[in-house]
Design goal:
It is a single chain. By secondary structure, this protein is of the alpha/beta class. The protein has one domain: 3-Layer(aba) Sandwich (Rossmann fold), CATH 3.40.50.960. The protein is built from 5 helices and 6 strands; from the N terminus they run βαβαβαβαββα. The strands form 2 sheets. A 4-stranded parallel β-sheet has the order 2-1-3-4, sandwiched between helices. The protein has a two-stranded antiparallel sheet with strand order 5-6. α2 runs parallel beside α3. The longest helix has 20 residues.
């Protein structure tokens, strides 16, 4: 989804329901922590605003984006977890490392969704530079963590 075309941070969830009993895990990559912490804060705030109890939001950290897949699987396999939000930020550099990490995380998160039949939300920024990431972590393009929370709740309502 292009940020210039849609900003879910300002969107309301049209189908209002009681989300208070849902238990949601948020896995946050420590790499690019200024950005991932802002994304995580956005996700937590939105979940609470929509009625998820703060004690039902479990936040765990992993070293980097690549570790999001396994940590998401660990949380998704828990029967009391209803959804997982994987939050990370990969900024393109001068080597192909960016492509390998992005491909691995994308495929891994997709596989965890299908394996456990529960929402595992891809809240990973894949940007060309740090400014683009900051713009999506509470800047001019909203907060993609907030959008990941909206996506989780919409998928739980599916």
């Amino acid at each position: 989804m292009s940020s210039a075309k849609q900003n879910l941070s300002s969107q309301k969830i049209s189908k209002k329901q009681d989300y208070s009993s849902y238990k949601i895990a948020i896995i946050v990559a420590e790499w690019n922590s200024e950005i991932t912490n802002a994304l995580s804060s956005g996700a937590i705030s939105r979940l609470i605003d929509e009625g998820v109890k703060s004690e039902n939001i479990i936040v765990k950290s992993v070293p980097g984006a690549f570790e999001l897949t396994l940590a998401s699987q660990f949380m998704a396999q828990k029967l009391d977890i209803d959804a997982v939000i994987a939050i990370g930020c990969v900024i393109k550099g001068d080597t192909p490392h960016f492509e390998y990490i992005c491909q691995g995380v994308t495929m891994g998160i997709t596989e965890v969704n299908l394996k456990f039949n529960k929402p595992v939300i891809f809240g990973v920024l894949t940007t060309n530079n740090e400014q683009q990431a900051l713009d999506r972590a509470g800047g001019k393009h909203g907060n993609k963590g907030d959008e990941a929370a909206v996506t989780a709740l919409k998928m739980l309502s599916f």
